[in-house]
């Protein structure tokens, strides 16, 4: 019983070209309409590769689909000699609602550290795109029982210098690295523990109002069979879905977890 509208976001990762993207988005919309999905009750977003975003935007705008969309990354810079990078300004211009920042695959394969993640979060805000900030511990950290301290450390750096007004709109995804793409899902209690700790930290750093407003998602091998139990937890306000988000029937079922 909170005022937070749950968010189910599908991170397609490096899957689906722009033609496949238009097929999936149309099918997803039809399926959710068929099932009378109430977008005011549960928000649904797709997060395709950059090269798909224009096609997805055209479809969503033109047909007045209620899906939201976002990008998987952005540059810390506004513009200039940064070959291959994508500015938050471009994402804003295309109407992206969200941009994923600090996904574990970016941290691991592109050596993004917490300081760079913080710059990217700031760049997203500068352009009016809501950051979907990913945090989460490795298996090693989890085995040592240090998951809460580790995740709060990531959070403190990523949010450094932001105002309460900015943080009020952020979306945070708790994604234990050992559960991403592995089929290994955190238990609902594991998810709740860290999501509650994140909310507690927001209360300490900002205010109870900010803590109550921010949506904290869980991500890591979410599927139609485990989503309801995870969503039932008080401090879990949605899911960031990777692998299962490119299977449109599975993703639509996840969106209808209630
Ligand atoms: C992700 O990419 O954010 C993710 C949670 O992946 P998966 O659902 O495949 O574990």
From TrEMBL:
Q: Which residues form the signal peptide?
A: none
Q: Which domain of life is it from?
A: Bacteria
**Would you tell me the Gene Ontology cellular component terms?**
cytosol
Q: Which processes are annotated in GO (biological process)?
A: gluconeogenesis; glyceraldehyde-3-phosphate biosynthetic process; glycerol catabolic process; glycolytic process
**Keyword field:** Cytoplasm, Gluconeogenesis, Glycolysis, Isomerase
Q: What class of enzyme is it?
A: isomerase
Subunit relationships: Homodimer.
Q: What is this protein called?
A: Triosephosphate isomerase
Q: Which organism is it from?
A: Allobranchiibius huperziae
